[in-house]
Write a structure and sequence with these properties.
transmembrane, transmembrane helix, cell membrane, transport, mainly alpha
Length: about 375
Amino acid sequence: MISLFKNWYLRHFSTPGTIEFALVLLCIFLIVYYFMWLVGPLVVALCIAYCLDGVVRFLTRKCYMSRTVASSVTMLFFIGLSVSILVFVVPKLLQQGSQFYQTLQSISAQNISTEKGEDFDSIVTSNILPFVENLPDPLPSMMTEGEIKELVNKARLALISNVSNIFNNQIMPSVVNVMSFLVYLVIVPIFTFLMLSNKSQLQSRFVTYILPSNQRIIHEFWPQLTKQIEGYMRGKLIHITIVSIVNTVAFMLFGLHYAILLGIGVGLSVVIPYVGAVIITIPILLVSVFQFGFGYTLVWLLAVYIIIQLLDSNVLTPMLFSKAMNLDAFSILASILIFGGLWGFWGVFFSIPLATFIRTIIVNWPSSSPVPLVQEEKK
């Protein structure tokens, strides 16, 4: 056992500088975990700077601007876009979110009706009953129409209760906490501008005073890490924007209630593959069924929604992300479980970027010798 651990240690930490680099990563994780309330503006500003740095580099190369001027132009554009979103989109989003939250809270154990005045549980029961009657004997005689309706009622109440609890205990407190830190509106743009304009100086200080003294590991490992993270964050931002706009427009064309809220929710769900799509589909189904009932409008709405999801997964995602950036299903679900347990809602929201960060570290970590098992699998 000791020799096994020794061989593992020599294989992964014999390169000069790897131990110091591992300690730096561990310290950064502990600081973010325990002092997020203190370093939160820096983390948010760093994420925004990663997304905007490509625009700054483009302006410096194509328009021959200095780094400071390019950063100023980029920040002015970013602030103008952010103010436009705050003025035209956020109030409507908050209004629909408040209405949807109050609707969930107001639903009691009493039965409800669709917008057309039809009894919801009776409609679902009438659609399930023919299927049960065609089952082989003695299954049809074991379930009456009243029992089916009672099961539908219990399932509906449990589903609404769970969705309401998610909004009440996870999403709404997180949004309120974020909105309470209005100081972010001033501090984050300043930090972002300083990070963009003084990028070279800040990186030089980081390399000199924080990262290991072995410059070889920095020049070979760190650029790959930052490049992949920057590409992922920029691509994911474009991904969220396109999906949000397309779904919002589609829902508005159908006249669906809470169209902006649900459309942006679908866009944000792409941050959490698999799980996000399932979670956001539940409120979409609830709102659609309560508003339209079981009719052709519901069928067409779901068909358009499924087509958009297929185009997203088979066309848009491959265009924005290379295969190297994709994670397997096990890694995605494991990251959602682990980071969700550590940081709650925001841990789930940022689970894939964090998993990508860890994957990049593992793949590019310096090793003194190849692992035999990997060679055997490749053969």
